[in-house]
């Protein structure tokens, strides 16, 4: 049964060596002796790991769109959507924590908060949600500020998508193509018209139609994540203020109004 199975790893790379499990599994360090703090930390670590992969895939998607190679971009975007499903499902595990379970260790969190998740902010910037205020919590960490600032200053996934549409001959308005990419994208009627063409003529423009639907999948899942976060927070801390200083649930509800790709939603009314 055990024939052939290697057991001597004094001189050879093992599973744990390759995966750096000592580092990964030494990071779960509760500050209290409360049972549920381990769950709280684990959920965050899992979400941050998935966010790391999302950033990796979004970089590939943006590069491929820029280089006029949508195939691999779609593959990366489809992978991001699957990762998002995992992120959304993870809320279910956290809802097993009651308000009392959470309040028992909440004071240990001090003023730390999801506001300061730089990987989350990096994703938002790459999707085009450019709010310069959100750079501030990272001012004390130049190593984190640099990639955030770079994503803030660069075209978003949506900017790259609209540029691709223009290169394929669709009449994307010039001022949209030449806009200041450090500003949030404002809904544009000309862009709605372009997407309407893509949807109406999806047979001929199949690749661009696929791009549109991949983008809609991404935003749809992102909003579902935000909604589940807001609902989970609501059932765990009610209307308390957040440790990050915001109003809490009301702030999170406000974020649900913000769209990354507004024309892709408006076009549905026009078709
Ligand atoms: C008991 C569970 C949780 C509670 C009570 C909670 C509460 C909050 C609150 C109140 C805010 C608003 C900022 C503030 O004032 O603090 C916030 C923001 C945030 N939280 Fe959570 N959260 C929880 C779990 C999570 C988890 C598991 C994640 C996953 C990484 C997460 C990620 C974030 C992010 C990224 C933000 C910033 C959102 C934005 O600026 O739009 N939170 N959270
Ligand atoms: N903002 C949360 C605290 C919180 O959730 C949190 C604190 C430290 C590390 C991650 C967190 N998760 C997301 O906001 C609260 O007000 O209870």
From TrEMBL:
Catalysed reactions, semicolon-separated: L-tryptophan + O2 = N-formyl-L-kynurenine
Alphabetical GO biological process terms: L-tryptophan catabolic process to acetyl-CoA; L-tryptophan catabolic process to kynurenine
EC number(s) from the headed UniProt entry: 1.13.11.11
Positions bound to substrate: 40-44, 102, 106, 243
Comment on bound cofactor: Binds 1 heme group per subunit.
Function: Heme-dependent dioxygenase that catalyzes the oxidative cleavage of the L-tryptophan (L-Trp) pyrrole ring and converts L-tryptophan to N-formyl-L-kynurenine. Catalyzes the oxidative cleavage of the indole moiety.
Protein name as annotated: Tryptophan 2,3-dioxygenase
Species in which this protein is naturally found: Roseomonas acroporae
Origin organism lineage: Bacteria, Pseudomonadati, Pseudomonadota, Alphaproteobacteria, Acetobacterales
Gene expressing this chain: kynA
